[in-house]
Write a sequence for this structure.
């Protein structure tokens, strides 16, 4: 079968107003192609049997609900704009990478580089996220229900990262202006990342992020804020000799 | 890239399905590398019957029939010699000591490359597409309690049978690698000065020789792998097995992927989850990614 040939009836059944697309019966490119159609009738799509395939529901570019029933491989919901994606399973490397807007909710765990380079939107991982969570994040909000791995928020430029568990080694290495909130322990901080005071506006911001991720009754006083000491990326006259 | 897979069966009822399950895992990982592939299978009665030494070789100058005749002339009269054609690999099995069979094979087939030896182990590897190789090995019909596999995208050495994985350089041992070692030339020189002989220019072979050297010195697998972490620079997810166990370790940066799945019936490791979707009971398996520089080991 040609991977790009659409099969309008096989494997596509409308249940009420929900369109079901079965990846056991349709090629991934065909499913993603349908999701990209501007005139797609359904407001909600269920994707069945993802079986760890890569690039499931990438590049969505309009307001719609997509639910993926199972485990996804690399880059799921990457480059998302406007859509709300729910993954009822674990996600592989780079879930919601380079997301621009909308939301991605992972009901299980996420592999490394979750939310990498994402500009906007909300990524929620209800379980743990592995290494490099939020690496080079550029404005996304990320809320992790469990713990995150090493080198998370490396070179994080903007946005907020909330961790309800612990953080691994080298959190926030070479961080710019992203704000990190961690409830548990931090194994170690990366270069130029420091603990900072939780002022009232930070408690308010954190409470809002937790609420938006479905963690309503969390006590924000248990959290520590981390961010840039701003000693690394600005020119400093004391360093003149180094140039 | 490269893909690695491993399956360690806990439930003997699944032993007859080992080859089918391992074939599915290996072929799913062919997207990660399709220039060479290989497997090690523990406990297959065709390739490595109980009570037999088994030696696996590639690039044999002799046909299977010629090799059998040559070995029968070298071994004591009446010794039954089995030669299984798992093209491009030949597996020789004979009820003698492993070292006696290795010596006989080296004499009978000079120039052949021995790619595995021991009891209850067959190592099959070569250059080509993983699915085509799995077919020519006859992998789907394999039985046993444990198997590991590798799909290669070559970076550190040429695409040759000797450059393909697994590297099985110690008795019953086997190592597969996703990644690249950057200081392998230095470690190779050090091992050579101590008399270790190499078959290829491949970086992974240095890792396998290092582990075999440490195990031969009496270290357990966990300590040997800790020494590897302290000695080797580069990127790696390694799956290291012997007859009784298999172990997984990732480097400190852990950018090379690995997923572990466990049920009451089996433990499986793969570069990606999708390689595990054909395993019975995967829906309810415990799934996790190994932590950097932590050694995970399972024993029969």
């Amino acid at each position: 079968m040609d991977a790009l040939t659409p099969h309008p009836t096989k494997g596509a059944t409308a249940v009420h107003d929900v369109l079901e697309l079965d990846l056991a019966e349709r090629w991934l490119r065909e499913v993603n192609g349908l999701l990209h159609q501007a005139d797609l009738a359904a407001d909600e799509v269920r994707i069945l049997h993802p079986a760890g395939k890569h690039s499931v529901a990438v590049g969505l570019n309009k307001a719609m609900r997509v639910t993926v029933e199972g485990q996804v491989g690399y880059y799921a919901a990457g480059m998302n704009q406007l859509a709300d994606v729910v993954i009822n399973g674990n996600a592989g490397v780079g879930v919601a990478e380079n997301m621009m807007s909308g939301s991605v909710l992972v009901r299980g765990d996420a592999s490394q580089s979750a939310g990498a380079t994402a500009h906007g939107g909300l990524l929620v991982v209800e379980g743990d996220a592995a290494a490099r969570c939020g690496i080079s994040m550029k404005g996304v909000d990320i809320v992790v229900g469990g713990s995150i791995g090493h080198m998370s928020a490396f070179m994080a430029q903007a946005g907020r990262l909330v961790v309800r568990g612990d953080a691994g080694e080298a959190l926030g290495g070479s961080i710019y202006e992203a704000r990190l909130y961690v409830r548990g322990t931090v194994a170690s901080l990366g270069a130029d990342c420091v603990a900072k005071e939780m002022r009232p506006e930070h408690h308010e911001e954190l409470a809002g992020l937790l609420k938006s991720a479905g963690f309503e009754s969390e006590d924000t006083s248990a959290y520590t804020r981390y961010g840039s000491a701003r000693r690394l990326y600005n020119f400093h006259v004391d360093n003149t000799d180094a140039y | 890239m490269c893909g690695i897979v491993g399956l360690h069966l806990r439930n003997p009822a699944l032993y007859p399905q080992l080859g089918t399950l391992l074939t599915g895992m290996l072929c799913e990982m062919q997207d990660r590398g399709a220039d060479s592939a290989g497997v090690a299978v523990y406990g297959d009665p065709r390739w490595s019957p109980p009570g037999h030494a088994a030696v696996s070789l590639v690039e044999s100058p002799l046909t299977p029939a010629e090799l059998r005749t040559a070995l029968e002339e070298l071994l004591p009269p009446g010794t039954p010699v089995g030669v299984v054609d798992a093209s491009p690999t030949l597996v020789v099995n004979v009820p003698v000591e492993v070292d006696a069979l290795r010596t006989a094979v080296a004499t009978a087939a000079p120039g052949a490359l021995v790619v595995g030896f021991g009891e209850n182990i067959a190592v099959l590897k070569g250059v080509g597409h993983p699915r085509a190789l799995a077919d020519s090995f006859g992998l789907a019909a394999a039985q046993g309690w444990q198997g590991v596999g590798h799909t290669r995208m070559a970076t550190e050495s040429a695409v040759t049978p000797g450059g393909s994985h697994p590297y099985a350089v110690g008795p019953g041992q086997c190592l597969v690698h996703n990644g690249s070692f950057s200081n392998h030339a230095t470690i190779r020189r050090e091992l050579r000065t101590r008399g270790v002989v190499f078959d290829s220019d491949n970086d992974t072979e240095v890792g396998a020789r290092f582990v075999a050297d440490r195990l031969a010195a009496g270290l357990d697998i966990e300590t040997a792998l800790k020494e590897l972490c302290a000695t080797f620079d580069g990127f790696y997810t390694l799956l290291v097995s012997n007859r009784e166990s298999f172990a997984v370790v990732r480097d400190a940066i852990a950018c090379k992927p690995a997923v572990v799945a466990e049920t009451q019936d089996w433990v499986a490791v793969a570069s990606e989850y999708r390689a595990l979707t054909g395993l019975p009971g995967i829906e309810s398996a415990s799934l996790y990614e190994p932590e950097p520089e932590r050694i995970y080991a399972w024993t029969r």
